[in-house]
């Protein structure tokens, strides 16, 4: 009986590893299609995908394909504030430095084409009166 349980456990681990590999390949393919490169992240994949797609859509819709950093940052901030609650911040540009504190699971730094985007969430605490 113990041998059967061990075999089931081994097969379960094997199937889990195949699923994880498939997800990783799919994510890599989507990033290549959108021309995205993740530089650093502490964000769930679903939120990352939403950020990539939002950034790609706004970059493609800019007149003359000319970068408007403020417009893109505002669009990403509004998208994430409305979908995931307040206190999202976004920095967009071709060259910048930063040092930020972020909420757990709320940090993404990526590039798309030659534009770098830092998107992060901070904790909102009520004012003490």
Automatic annotation (TrEMBL):
CDD domains: DLC-like_DYNLL1_DYNLL2. Keywords: Cytoplasm, Cytoskeleton, Dynein, Microtubule, Motor protein. Transmembrane segments: none annotated. The keyword Cytoplasm applies. It is found in: Cytoplasm, Cytoskeleton. It holds the Pfam family Dynein_light. Signal peptide: none annotated. InterPro entries: DLC_sf, Dynein_light_chain_typ-1/2. This is Dynein light chain. It comes from Opuntia streptacantha (Prickly pear cactus). The lineage of its organism: Eukaryota, Viridiplantae, Streptophyta, Embryophyta, Tracheophyta.
